[in-house]
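Here we describe the complex-level prediction in full. Unlike the single-chain runs in Section 2.1, the two entities below were treated as one system.
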Amino acid sequence: MLDALAHLGRAGIGAIRRLGRGHLLAASMLLGSGEVLRRPGLLVTQLHSVGVLSLVIVGVSGLFVGMVLGLQGYHVLSQFGSAQSLGVVVAASLVRELGPVVAALLFAGRAGSALTAEIGLMKATEQLSGLEMMAVDPIRRILVPRLYAGFLAMPVLAALFSAVGVLGGWFVGVGLLGVDDGAFWSQMQAKIDFHEDVVNGVVKSLVFGFVCTWIALFQGYDAVPTSAGVGRATTRTVVHSSLAVLGLDFVLTALMFGD
Amino acid sequence: MDRSEAQGEGTPPLVRIRNLCFSREGRPIFDGVDLDIPRGRVTAIMGPSGTGKTTLLKLIGGQLRPDAGSVEVDGRNVHALGKRDLYRLRMRMGMLFQSGALLTDLDVFENVAYPLREHTRLPESAIRKLVLLKLQAVGLRGARRLMPSELSGGMARRVALARAMALDPMMILYDEPFTGQDPISMGVLVRLVRRLNDASRLTSVLVSHDVQETASIADLIYVISAGRVVARGTAQEVMASDSPGVRQFLQGLPDGPVAFHYPAPPLAQDLLEAA
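The structure predicted for the assembly as a whole is:
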């Protein structure tokens, strides 16, 4: 009994320490933000790595999610004689929720895990120590450009997800199920509010981008420098990021749309 | 100018360690170590695996903080320095890691150019000349467009040595430079350490457990065991030491002050418990 209690206490203290280290790292990265202005080339390289290389998976996923929304939406709306509103349903679902959330989950799985593995391996192969001994701060030089790349790439990926999703919904609704083309677009245009829907979606994806990238970088930087340690850190990145995205989505939705 | 004059005999040591205590997860690594690294010499720190030789280099470089005691480099207490001053001091030190620690996404040329690009505003033409000269010194000018993954272990360490030399430091710390090398690579590295030290008037600190190779180039040897310095002197003096710990290490004896068996309860007790 006492052993179990001691084990629980140790685990709790370990988790709180890890949380503290994570926040200290976030503070150090934010304090070192000037690096991206001094060396924009580093940011561009990372934007390519975390953003451009995630385009295909985000685009293809958006297409399928939009097609499913088109099918499901048509099925439900046609029972109430409102099949012409399919464009609004598809666009609102994507721009408000599915775009930011699913793109963030995909981002955590593709770019987040890659970031953790990269930083963890740099630690395991003493590259980070090597930078420190060359009087180069690895937080500013390696982590900060990646943090801002994730932060900036996320809204663009979410926008792409939503745009391709709308096209998928249009293809199924208008192309296959016979919804009127004009009604699909005009109702969407009339009902989707720029501030309420689009801006809130962008705010969500900025928050998700920062949190997912921060978690990925911290897990890599804090990883036990062995192959098993890096593997565990990569898993933790995907799990923690996914839970953080879903939890934060509820909080942000409540703040944005709760009455 | 005789050799002792050239090596700064009579001048204060470059590295001065006093009463150094350091423990990791409750296990003491150093327990009151005193150690001086003279300027201009090749000083070797030797000892069995797990005695904290690499840890000592990290303490000298300020990557780890001691529990007690002080580490002074060129008269400055490393652990009392702020981050900016510590980084300024590190620009005057080079460190050769056991793995080489080359940046894997940069080729050989860019790895060596890296500290120059980070810390100087030299024009590209000057950086090119400096990098080629450093690579020439380690015999790898022709390998400048290879990626780290295309290098052998010995070549990677030579590139790392060229990178450590890029800013013309006052001191280079070598972490197990000879481990896992074939005889040719080892011979190359041994000669390079000595030649670069003398040609560039460096101070070299060499952590190793390769007895013969290290003894052949070191001016001064410290042997560390069980958290303390157990021998200090020239290679001949250390070889002649009658300390049991030093004799066990130098002669490669399986049992002695460093026990063959890891601490454990009696075998019979363990076997009976298993039954």
